[in-house]
Automatic annotation (TrEMBL):
It comes from Devosia equisanguinis. The lineage of its organism: Bacteria, Pseudomonadati, Pseudomonadota, Alphaproteobacteria, Hyphomicrobiales. The active site is at C362. GO terms for biological process: regulation of DNA-templated transcription; RNA methylation. Its EC number is 2.1.1.176. SUPFAM superfamilies: NusB-like, S-adenosyl-L-methionine-dependent methyltransferases. InterPro entries: MeTrfase_RsmB-F_NOP2_cat (IPR049560), MeTrfase_RsmB-F_NOP2_dom (IPR001678), NusB-like_sf (IPR035926), NusB_RsmB_TIM44 (IPR006027), RCMT (IPR023267), SAM-dependent_MTases_sf (IPR029063). This is Ribosomal RNA small subunit methyltransferase B. The keyword S-adenosyl-L-methionine applies.
Length: 433
């Protein structure tokens, strides 16, 4: 007897469940690739399910609590991941249809030895969710952010900004590129709009990044508009020696090379440096690449300028990585604060007298940004602030703070354009002796 064919859509549901389960377990989210699901439409569908489940995580938590009075079953394999994907479809992706959500959820559990005994529970829970989907779809958007995060960010940015954060979380991030050369024809071919300086934005695309015009020729690189700001603010003469600390995957390295500096790119992760090397080769740049610990590295000759994009909580990237909202806690942030101080201290030690230092983090946490700038001025006696002026941020003057730092967040957009930007903090210093 011939084997019964696999139900349509089951393989992508299984792949999505495995990826979501890994993220729920603490892994960083990475979209499914061609090696996971070959068909482009299926891959897009699976990624849409996963990202919706992650973006709506807080709301789905409340739904699950109502549907499962005894909580999630223990040691139940993929049950939670399949349930979250199915609830995301039933409540927040009604265009995908309700029947497939129920049917594929049950079929997916049948493939899991640790969860197949829960098919009856899954079916009952999802039918109840289907009956209440209209009510669930009107849930308070304040549930999108964990309570502790909302409280922290409300204090830092205000309620109006938090509303914009919630909207940005649901919408996700557009694709921003930094151009190697100013080229109107390329911008038109990409279907992009100009943001500021050499940053452009694609609000939507119908193909992988590698298939976009100009990729193979190295005419641009992917870089969020906020991430492109720090390197532009470096004060150094063309030809100056510049150290890019914690450089991988290389967006700022490319900017520094483009600006005509003699660039050294340092990172402790050899695999990430290999990716940087490949990126630089595609773009036609040849920085010195150094594999070393950024907290202890000592150069034979101090650098004229240094850019330190320090490891951080990365909460400013939640539009692309919504899981960060639920994975980070106070202890994580405190640990990164300690590391950032070690890196700042060592960056200072490698900086020539009169040299410029840029410190930046893709974090929305004041402890990793504003507070670190204050700490550096107190702890490093011959380091002084070099305030950033509004004239240096022509289309984003509102990002310049009273102390001359730059603070971006998803509620801001260059020139008022749609799409927001990552949360970033940038401070500039100079060594006086």
């Amino acid at each position: 007897m011939a084997n019964k064919p696999e139900p349509a859509g089951l393989s992508l549901r299984l792949a999505a469940a495995q990826r979501l389960r890994a993220v729920l377990g603490g892994e960083h989210f990475a979209p499914l690739s061609t090696s996971d699901i070959a068909d482009g439409r299926d891959r897009a569908m699976a990624n849409r399910l996963i990202t919706t489940a992650l973006r709506r995580h807080g709301q789905i938590d409340v739904i699950i609590a109502e549907l499962l009075e005894k909580g999630l079953p223990a040691r139940s394999g993929t049950f939670e991941a399949v349930l979250r994907l199915s609830l995301a479809q039933l409540v927040f992706l009604p265009d995908l249809g309700a029947h497939s959500a129920l049917f594929l959820a049950v079929e997916a559990l049948k493939k899991d030895n640790k969860a197949r005994h829960l098919t009856g529970l899954m079916n009952a829970v999802l039918r109840k969710a289907q009956a209440n989907s209209a009510r669930y779809g009107l849930m308070d958007e304040r549930l999108l952010l964990p309570e502790a995060v909302r409280s922290r960010w409300t204090s830092a940015y205000g309620e109006t900004a938090l509303d914009a954060f919630a909207e940005a979380l649901i919408e996700g991030a557009p694709l921003d590129l930094t151009l190697r050369d100013d080229d109107d024809e390329l911008v038109e071919a990409l279907g992009a709009e100009r943001l500021m300086a050499d940053s452009v934005r694609l609000a939507s695309r119908d193909r992988p990044v590698e298939a976009l015009p100009g990729y193979d020729a190295g005419r641009w690189w992917v870089q969020d508009a906020a991430s492109a700001i720090p390197a532009r603010l470096l004060r150094a003469s063309p030809g100056a020696s510049v150290l890019d600390l914690c450089a991988a995957p290389g967006g700022k390295t490319a900017q520094l090379a483009k600006a005509g500096f003699e660039v050294s790119a340092l990172d402790s992760d050899s695999a990430r440096l290999e990716r940087l090397s490949v990126n630089m080769s595609r773009l036609g740049y040849a920085p010195e690449i150094i594999t070393a610990d950024a907290s202890s590295y000592r150069a034979e000759t101090p650098f004229d300028a240094i850019v330190l994009d320090a490891p951080c909580s990365a909460t400013g990237t939640f539009r692309r990585h919504p899981e960060i909202l639920w994975h980070r806690n106070a202890a994580d942030i405190a640990g990164r604060v300690r590391l950032q101080r070690a890196l700042l201290t060592n960056a200072f030690a490698n900086l020539a007298v009169g040299g410029s230092l840029i410190y930046c983090v893709c974090s929305l946490e004041p402890e990793e940004g504003e507070a670190q700038a204050d700490w550096a001025l107190d702890a490093l006696s011959s380091l002084e602030a070099d305030p950033i002026g509004t004239d240096e941020m022509a289309v984003l003057t509102e990002a310049v703070t009273d102390k001359g730092h730059v603070r971006t967040h998803p509620g801001l957009a260059p020139g008022g354009r749609n799409g927001g930007m990552d949360g970033f903090f940038v401070a500039r210093f100079r060594r006086t002796r």
